[in-house]
């Protein structure tokens, strides 16, 4: 319980209760690998705000803009005024705080203070004062006087009854968890907007600033996720601290410590230092969980959280603090939204907990309003506004959404830039590679991710997982349940470690140090990445005993995803587990020979097991809903789904488990691609030339592709990689495990021999690696290679 000294009292009779004592850029690039590097900010903290009120977003030009927007019944500004009017029309709906510590009272205080500022209607002022008082005084029911009120410090054990009496204190018994995101910022805004208004009791304002400071001080010491950048609880705290720091400043002799903390520590050390810069990823780039505009908890929680961070940054910048890193981050939200949305713009990848039966998270106005309300570039704001209009998103109901409506930019379609945007984007913080074959509504779209453990809540144990869609039709989907983060319900690789993983047997764990060391996109639409998930099987200080676990992943623009999975386990009794979940209705995927085929909407999905070192595929239908198997939490045996799906599964025994798959996205009338192993006779007839490699040969729409990796145990590299493919036709090559120099480059030579094109790769200053992507042309005169 937080206590703070009460210095003034006031009288209130507003509710008929008599006299009471109360207290206290990226467009045009051919290959987009990540957002720009994040320059570290050296922040000099200016003095705490001390100017006239209002200090937050209510300058005359903004008030005029809000008033103009409020005349449109579909605007967020109109929604705020209507919300206040509802408190007058339906007072019985506002007598309790509401379920799960609702924002009923703080939201009413803000909407009515906003409505008064915009309309000057005295009725709205009365309501604003009423609900500010209620937010401060009461806890669960209007008039219960159990909130931030005057009392005696019964925990003051040093008092012996003879010295001076124990101090009068303010008791804070709530708002240290989820509700902070309402009580902190809403009380701050109402305080700021009512300050100096004729008829507003000065004692109420003193109580507001004192209680708000007490709440925030307690949260700073004990609040949930107070120091976890990239957590939705933290975002709620940060926006409360930022708005309160500006609103209170040095009012009534306040010492300004809220401002000193938010401007001198919260933003430079926590949000920039940890959230954006963080520890470097394997290629040495900044990799805090927020870098690149993604949200590690998933996009059920991300929309409100990024809006809160964006508004908080704007408030702090308005107090004179330069935050260029946060400006860049706010702009990156628009870019990630464009890449993270389905080709039809009908939804986006969830990326974490999601408690809906929908395959993808619906578009959210709050993400785009974060760009518009925050300190993004005008270019990014124009992209956000265009997407908001195209998706016909209903205006939000928060003041932050009304603030976003003031952004005066001309809508511009991100997809229509000249030159066209890159087809791949890496959100480096979450290690999520977003890829697509084009920007048309019928394009193929995929997300591949391999993050380490980034945040304590809502992140699933799913390094190496991916989703895959064709236009509006989801093909490979992530149906994992809310709060069941075990790996089997995702499309990630898992393994049976020999160490005792306790409840996490057979699944990845929350101590994961998995990563995404490689990610690449090309102008032609090839996207490829490597998941290194050996460290995903650590257990509470005990390192993983899986020495090697990789998933090599590639998406080809013709409509294929290729996975090469290799895991080293202790022995044959310890397996690698591969699972793919398809949106085929639960029963619509069936094995036909070696191929699993099923329909999704106007599309088909086909799964080809090109190479298995052991095991046989099985297709089943996971239960829908919460897991009913008897096991501890979490439970690797649980593959319960949020919606009906089919599960393609194969368990490959160790000690060296290998699986290569090709997954087709097809129109209803399309035949599956012609696929095979790099070691099949069709690709490598006698005399065999491909013993040193493994992988897949894929022929689709007249385009021949080869996705290649080393066949050596644990991907061991030789000084030279050599393999051969049939001559006579051009081909595309995506090569993992190639020998390379210190700069990650390789020399590629190709020659004709016996009707084949022989590829020889050595280290040297040649083609860009990680992985290599090049084309081979075959003609009568011989074979030649050209870098993508």
Textual characterization of the structure:
With 788 residues, the chain is an alpha+beta fold. The chain has three domains: 9-16 and 25-153 and 167-416, Glycosyltransferase, CATH 1.50.10; 431-672, Beta-galactosidase, Chain A, domain 5 (Distorted Sandwich), CATH 2.70.98.70; 675-788, no CATH class. The protein contains 13 helices and 31 strands. The strands form seven sheets. The protein has an eight-stranded antiparallel beta sheet, with no helix packed on it. Strands 22-23-24-26-30-31 form a six-stranded mixed beta sheet, with no helix packed on it. Helix 1 packs across helix 2 (76-89). The N and C termini lie far apart (62 Å). Mean pLDDT is 89; it is low at 1-42 and 152-159.
**Inertia-based shape:** elongated
Mean of pLDDT: 89
Strand content of the residues, in percent? 15-25%
N→C terminal distance: 62 Å
Which characteristics define this entry?
disordered N terminus, 6-stranded mixed beta sheet, 23% strand, 13 helices, Glycosyltransferase, 3 domains, 24% helix, 788 residues, Beta-galactosidase, Chain A, domain 5, alpha+beta, 8-stranded antiparallel beta sheet
